[in-house]
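Example record

One chain of 161 residues, shown exactly as stored in the release files.
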Amino acid sequence: MTILRLSKSALLPITALAATMVVSACSMGGTSAGIALAPGLAARMNQPGASLDRAQAIAMINAYRSTQGQPALTTDAGLDGTAQILADQYARTGTPPVTPQELAGMKLSAGYSSFAETFSGWRNNPADAAGLTISASRAGIAVSYNGTSTYGTHWVLVLAQ
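Predicted structure tokens for this chain:
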């Protein structure tokens, strides 16, 4: 039995290719040639207690950024916290939050039940797509559900240098 071992530098192109295939699958209605979205990307967040897989969400954004010639974002726990505060505020008030000054950018969405749907909405809107590729090096993402609000599920992506 032969075991193939790959270095980290060899895995990067493979990982980028797999992520690009996921982005392509998402743009084709969720699956393409047997490629399914990772469970964390298709998980429904429109219910109490749902938990977003932040790493998979940022990986999907990074796959998109790579197709646009932009460097990958690193996940940032502090920015996840900021995004969560803003998402909770958005869900509670129904009013889109204002981008805090210290951030390079922010993307908002409401009403989509999964991250894959949210990402497709951002990617298919020219202004939102441009916002996904702004100059930034770190990101935080969050979702908040409020069953009594108009849209239910509220998404916030924050980007910083």
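Notes: The helical segments are 8-27, 39-42, 54-67, 77-93, 115-124, 126-132.
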